[in-house]
Fold:
Amino acid sequence: MEQLTQKLGSGEMVIQELPLPQLTSGMVLVKNHYSLISAGTEGTTVKSARKSLIGKAKERPQQVKQVLDTLKTKGIVQTYRAVVKKLDAYSPLGYSCAGEVIDVADDVTEFKVGDLVACAGAGYANHAEVVSVPVNLCVKLHDDADLSVACYNTVGAIAMQGVRQADLRLGETCAVIGLGLIGEIVCHLLKASGIYVVGVDVSENAVNAARNNCVDLGIVRNAPGIEEQIAASTGGLGVDAVIIAAGTSSLDPINFAGAIARKKGRVVVLGAVPTGFERNPYWYKKELELRMSCSYGPGRYDNKYEEEGIDYPAPYVRWTEKRNMEAFQQLLYTHKIDLSHLTTHRFKFEDAPRAYDIIAKRSEPYLGMVLEYDYTKEHVRKAMTIAQNAPLTSINIGFIGAGSYAQSNLLPYLPPESEVGRVCVMTNSGTTSKRVAEKYHFSQCTSSEDDIIQNQDINTLFITTRHNSHAKYVIDGLKAGKNVYVEKPLCLDIDELNEIQDLCEQQHCGVMIGFNRRFSPLTTLLKQEMGEGKMSMIYRVNAGFIPSSSWIQDKAIGGGRILGEVCHFIDLMAFICGSNPVQVSASALPDPEGLNDTVNIIVEFANGSTGVVAYYANGPKSLPKEYLEVYASGKAGIIHDFKKCEIYGKKVATRKLAVQDKGQKCMMQAFFDSLRGGSLPIPLDEIFSVTRATFAAIKSIQQAGAPVRF
Structure:
């Protein structure tokens, strides 16, 4: 299938052939008939991408700070990789479309093949021939719906939420500041609700268009006596509410809203405008209320709602983003609002770059721009060839998942193509799959795991996906007789662990897990200096805050931070003392959300060693993340965030690294060496015992800190 993409670094915009998007749990696959270009949001993205690096930096001071912080911690190589990955990536465009369902996931019941639907969501409802969309970002349409208007779905829901936040009653008045695409739709919705509508914009053309279609009073912002005209139209009272649908860095919209609103009125910020209003003479004396309108409505930015399909109960959350979209589509279908005049331009999908040129150059007036697709085309899910006749060797790899971590810490350390055949790569995004395949010289990219797991040429499987899929891919890979490398955690529950362990024993095959810290040069030094025997260890981790809304904190997807990250630290202590964990006691700082991400974990090892993992999410960013102390036989060793190691004995020895090294390069070398005939770099019993220790830590917390032996 074809998709419109742009590179952030160069601004290059191309329509390129990509694999069909993945159809995962809770998703529907849609063949687009039409998609809408949001000139405001997408225009900003396109203009930004076409700027110089200095121009991009000026627009993104926070991201520049992140780059500088990464440079200090990880050095120039890792920072360069991260920046280049971002700049060279193909970014999808678009977030509003309409089309026909061509496939549904096994657990989807509310849609069927052949349904007409409207879709929403950046990263989902893209400008592409085929899109994969979660059920809560997709609404069913009537069989005779006009899809060329239904594709306004997302901007319609955004406008709908702004109107709901204004909380107006029949016969009241509302001013809309900013009469662009969303502003005009807001006006239509207000008129359909029996509201007297005042439209204001800096553009005379925009005001004239609104006068002809959707406002009772239209005024250019710099018109003489504008405040008096609005006051007169409301009988001297002032408007009951103001909806700001403009996009500007100026404070004029927020202060002007204060001037024209009545006492106790409401001001709703729908567009991207600053809110630093002047307290006097209006906001304070009128006791005005400021409200924010969040995108499509309740559910937006909630992974459980958008990605997992968990709806809010209608009696308590009447208007979610999906119900907003449904209401908008019903207004369109019943002709209670008519948006046909908003479409100023139509382009065939293959001509899409022309539309963005008009937006970027402002070469002619525009409002709604609709892309038309050839929906008679058939689309087949199959691997896409990137390089013909790529060489195969005794080790041939496939990658399932290749996100930021894999691109920065694993893929750059692959052996030369003469030593390792690079067969196929799959990620959630077709754009990422193709980009990774091109950059790291894989023969194919795909959206189907079977193209990798069932590929007879591939004998080594890398799994770097979200945590809830690790066990499935490991099990499928082992059953297919492949060597398996998996990022931590190995799995999310004990039954998955037992099945993986049984498979390894039955098939005499193994798994490598990404416990990279044991391969750091500072870890090697510390282990050599401390020797063998009983040890006492303290591992303090300033883990940092991750919100509960993150997939990492989601028990069903990420497993939580104990399974997802604490496993690293238990493994490193096990490696240092040379013994497997056998008992765990743990306690967590009380947390109303039950995240268990500020914990003390006491680990006992088979050889009598003990260790404490102090994993804290409530510390400052200014404190380095990791600090490990090890004590044994009159010696002590300290690793400072994998940049410095100190050994204390009769003398003090110090080794410093130029940049942080957590061992990924050495780990990859060790893994590929093992595939050439050596033993696995991490014995299986160590992988399994460390994984059981993380399960035991969670159980101990649930049992008020009682020790859990395993």
Notes: The first strand starts at residue 2 and ends at 7. The first helix runs from residue 39 to 49. The radius of gyration is 29 Å.
